[in-house]
Design goal:
The relative contact order is 0.08. The protein has helices at about 55-65, 85-100, 150, 175-180, 195-205, 245-250, 270-290, 320-335, 360-365, 395-400, 415-420, 445-455, 460-465, 470-475; strands at about 5-10, 20-25, 45-50, 75, 110, 130, 135, 160, 165, 185-190, 215-220, 230-235, 255-260, 340, 350, 370-375, 380-385, 405-410, 410-415, 425-430, 440. The chain has 14 helices and 21 strands. The radius of gyration is 27 Å and the shape is elongated. By secondary structure, it is an alpha/beta fold. It has a four-stranded parallel sheet with strand order 2-1-3-4. A four-stranded antiparallel sheet has the order 16-17-20-21. It starts with a strand and ends with a helix.
Length: about 475
Amino acid sequence: MTTKVFACADSPNVAYRGAEAELIPGLCESPSQISERIGEAEQVVLLLHRHRYELADVQRALRAVEIDPLGTQIFDVPAEISEADLEVTVAGLRRRAAGFEGSRPEQHKPTMPKEMSRRSVLRPPRPVYIAAPMVDHQTCAAADGCQVCVQICPQDAYRSQRGRIHFNKDLCEPCGRCVSGCPTEAISNPSATPAMLAAQIRAVVDHADAPVGLRFVCSGTLAPAPSSGWHDIVVPCTGMVPGSWLLTALLMGAGSVTALGCADGGCSRGLDGHSRAAIDFARAALTACGLDLVSVCSGSEIEIGAPVAHENFSAPFTHAGDVDVMLTLAALTGVDIDEVHNATNIGVVTIDPASCTLCAQCAQACPTSAIQAGSEGVTIVLSFDAAACTNCGQCTIACPEITRGAIALSAKVDVELLRAGRRTINQGTVLVCESCGKPIAPSSLMDRIGELLGDEFDDTMAYLSRKCMDCRTLG
């Protein structure tokens, strides 16, 4: 994808020479000038000045030349920034813009701007468009009962009806919780995809002459300008950032990393605690490995440390990438992390054989097939693969024997289990029909049904345990 960089040339305090940008006088106030210079470019990076442009005008100018505003990267250039920092920032934004895969009309959400330019006070405010998430129903597991997005959305923008997820864009204030929380990665935000985030970070790290610091910041927050050497990775809200993402950024070559909560007044969605928990988890994982705590900063940024490693993960900022990060940390330090923390999106499922009836409801509800049910002759086997578990909790919701402790889910990173692969967590015999040999049900399930019915139904249960459904009808 061809990407052009345009910069407003009205500020003499900013050195643009190293940014490979085309300077346009008056660009902030007259963004329509883009049309004269766009050429064959498919995407744009804009270097503008905060409070001097109106986003509605910029988006209109972009649409006029068939550029999708949701993929355009706009950098509000601070009053003072070094030429080196600007060059690194633009390199990252160019790669991020090039990674934009387009959007659909339903992903453009109109909203009123939170800032006003000098000119906007002279005319009524106009809506700007931000990126809204979209559900891919082909990969969504709602038909199997998954309702993670419904459970975690702070605006109640999702509902489940007849095995299908319905999304209300009007209720949504895009925060990205659904995107990073969806077990099957069926929900996406076109302006901040895993590929775009990874491309930006790799470019920033590769173009910097010294270790860099990375700040995950909210798109709707006026974050203070970063200090020298720090660069922003914009996401819908830092409440969507799990601790594994911070670790990913470190292992991709950043010297330090942090996630900034919302500015004064706190997060309107109530998600400030999530970014703090992500930082806490990342620091806990590094502590377990004996690595320098300065790499993950809580609160305001501090001195940038030396990079821990530089790994090119195959799928960063996805669940597979999260697992890769934990395995990489273990390989790098020789320490098998065994950490329980509510901010992890990796989990461990355990079964109590005395309470589990082997009904396999947990396996049917598991959206990632981390839990599977299979048969080996007259034996039914429940197995679990920790590397596939996203700690979504759907298995515990589905278990009919949860009050008896049949299943438990721990928010835990256990590298030994991640490395072990699939293993059996419970098994038992299956009753077979004495007439035709077909399986009837797990013997533990029939025992539990008999226990619930009581002694007076012993004869009935004895009969049901000998005949399958078809043979009962015939008999």
